[in-house]
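Bug #77: duplicate submission created two jobs. Keeping one. Sequence:
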Amino acid sequence: MGWNGKSGVLVLKGSLSRIDDCLTREDAHPVIKSVAAAALLSAILGFVLGDGLVKAASVAVLVSLALCSVLLLIGGLGSLRREADAHRGLVLRYAKAILDRDGLPYRFIKWEESSVIRNSRGDSLDTTTIRAEVTDNGMLFMRLAFGSGWPQPARHRGKVRLRVRKLMIGDRPGVNLERTVQWLEDGKLRLVIHFAEPPRVGEEISVVVECDWPGKSMPLMREGKVDKFTFRFSRPVPYARYQVTLPEGVDATCEPFGFSEHDERVHWGRVTDGQGRTQFYVDGVDVAVHRELGMLLQVG
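Kept job's structure:
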């Protein structure tokens, strides 16, 4: 196949763009930059001044440099990702240290958690509405934790989408709030919600955490395994509710977890929503500290 000058120019332009990205990166090693720049200059001169064979060789060199540049960029992204993970871990660590030292600057009034399982893959849309009263000055963040009933592989975590919003009077949605997320080795998700301004003491604040979580209930839906849906708090909560909605046409058996069937402070049961979907719920009143409360579900 003969040399096509037009194709060579196109390849040259694409290669130059990638190499330029590499050379202009601040985190690229100086030696790598120097070698790449020298090879780049030689290849360009060969392309401009050489004959057909030399031009083809020059383009081949440029393509090789471009591929090396892409690999360097990928390596740089990996380094940035590790650095960001480390920073997130520090934020979570300092937030915990502050709360351990000073205590929570708020008390929960109501916790309402809903998990809507969308399909047979176990994809879930989780919505948690939190209402709290501010009890101390300087409340700049709220620290929470969520998780699935099984240790999801790390590759699934990048597909999870999370949004935090403030709720106004009448539960009108407010603006998105900044948040810091950290994944633990067991698949648990830790979350710090940041407030731009500390709310006043005595003020009631409401936030909603929306989490689009692919495969969260995969063992329940695909394998028929028992799945656990529970909550546990580090401070007493006057009222907490957990509701699970199954896909249309799917049913399950339910057992209480963390309470007896005759516990007067816990109500549980099943209903059918307007779309014909089965829902299970657990309502807890005056939920004690560190008490894990909820339900066990098994499809089939």
